[in-house]
From TrEMBL:
InterPro entries for this protein: Tir-like (IPR054345)
Protein name: Molecular chaperone Tir
Organism: Candidatus Scalindua rubra
Organism domain of life: Bacteria
Amino acid sequence: MSENLQKVKTYLHELGFSISSENAEEEVVIIDDEEKGIKNLIIDCEDPILVLEQVIMDVPQKTDGFFKRLLQMNRTLVHGAFVLDDEGKKVLFRDTLQLENLDKNELEGSINALSIALSEYASELIEFSKS
């Protein structure tokens, strides 16, 4: 196990998160905390960065105003952003942090930013997903 992955796992445990899945070879862990809206949050050590990604929803069939609204939502996020996957079919939350100087507070801030974004925009995202 790499030093970076061990550091991330230690921080996650100190923050009270349990790891639901791990691939030490790929340096990836997945965490869940459904009370905070966190479901299958992928945390990937891609030296020199740490990537956090969670699928939020499928891109709606009717996209009138959807992409503009996502960009407006991004403007209010403290960390990270709503992005599209490579195929443009899923909306993800994504954040990146430098591994070299990563600290527990920084990781916690990124995870909390996801939770805050979901609590703030969940109803709006759900409405878009119905279209």
